[in-house]
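I am sending you the entry underneath: sequence plus fold tokens. Let me know what the token row says about the fold:
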Amino acid sequence: MKKFFLYAVATTAIVLQSCSTDDEQNIIKQQNYKYSVNTNYKTTVYNTIDTILEGFNYNDEKSLDENLLDFEIYVNKILPVYTEQGVVHQTIDFNVLKDIIEKPDEVIHNLPYSIALKQYLQNPEYILDEKVLETDNEKEIYYNCRLLFKTVDDNKDDRIREISAYAYGSQYNETQGILYAGATQMYLQNK
């Protein structure tokens, strides 16, 4: 009886899968990415950003700015930020994104981090002694930026932009860091 039930469930799933629309496929894809991002806490920031970018459907018929707004909505669905007031929508400030792209050193200089972390962000090939970092948040940002710098295959300037974007957003929360790093990567790939 159990075998018959399992065969019926499998057959139903196959039939439903073959009848689904592209929108349904995108919803399923989003749910799967949301599940993989949320259940694998130990995943690296790079893997999270990569997974989110892979799951996002860039629309060539839209402008880059429109795609970035869609990306913002997509990230907020996958990585919602909960506060006492409820879910808070995380936004991309396009002026900040432009500054990250055009003058990352200035953005880094204005971040509320220790001098040691700022120096690392400007020269990520340098290995920093974590003891000089002032807070646990700085240590986490340093660790995640090191992973981002090591795993991104772009040129050094683009990698500095991406870790600057992550560090900028992370001063608010992890979702903002991921949102800005992903938006920067998308911008650099589609400019």
Summary: The first helix runs from residue 2 to 19.
